[in-house]
Amino acid sequence: MSEGQHGGQNGESAGTGVTTGALARRLGVSPTTLRTWDRRYGLGPARRDTGHHRRWSERDVAMVEEMGRLTSAGVPPAEAARQALKLLDSGSAAESASESAPGSAAVPRRRRPARPAPVRSSDMFVRQRRGLSRAAVRLDSPAVEDLLTDAVESHSLVTAWQEVMVPTLHAVGRKWEEAGDRYVEVEHLLSWHVSRALHRCATAPASLAPAGAPAMKTPLVLACVPGENHSLPLEALSAALGELGVPQRMFGAAVPVEAVAEAVRRTGPAVVVLWAQARSTASVPLARHIADTRWGVRGARGRPVVMLGGPGWAGPTVRGALRPTSLREALAQISRVRGEAAPGRGPV
User: Fold this and answer.
1) Is the pLDDT of residue 119 over 50?
2) What CATH number labels 121-202?
3) Which of 18, 25, 284, 344 has a CB 3.0–4.6 Å from the CB of 316, allowing a cystine?
């Protein structure tokens, strides 16, 4: 039985407080986010039931509501947590003084902060992008790391990538172009932390693969084309596949053509992803060469499906190649290929 179900339909029992699941629904965040706030910043419930079920008192609820309000406004999570804890400490001191002072019945108790209005997802994304951009401009590495972690845990890796990371990277890139070389360090710092956040997600165990998903004995091959050093989008795909437990071989930036072909022959992948950020690096002959690379023993040879990722492939066409326009679409197309691939032979 989950925490959200324990204690009744509303997640509460008389005198025991609110469950984590009920509080997460109330605040519009995931239960994982609440547990992370507890583990990382100490914003946890004062009591736990038998079996380690968290029970959030009204004071605990006020504290995490303040945390949610501040982070939605773009305050870095670490600073928001400090302010939320101050709220809890000041409330505890006021209540202690009220209970111990003579004539305490006449002393008004501190009012719990009003519950903030629900934040629409679009508004939350804007605030998270704004907070992340400001932290990067300040070269505040701890804040950048906290904000990226919070974005992934509040939404999902795919949503955080498409709605927070990519727009912020584009905004910082535009600022760099407009200001000459003034913001090169900002873009490099943000890119490095985004890469770190993606690598952390990529280490998720294979047990997270959806129940009933078809097993894949051979890994995918992921590589940037020769001359292409822009590898972050490919890292995002690698991380998302890692979360799903999909085996893969990630070769990163600027991989020579024959190195990719040799990897195909040695691993027999169902899908080879070729990333090209710029039109100048996208090569139709290269993609065709990889698509025609065979693997397996004589009489049972297979060949991979080629996925062309990135804006560099906007013009060129390769017959039979997949052309996703987003990370979410790439995952869906790979899932379909995994389901269609026959055992021991890649789809043609």
Assistant:
1) no
2) 1.10.1240.10
3) 284
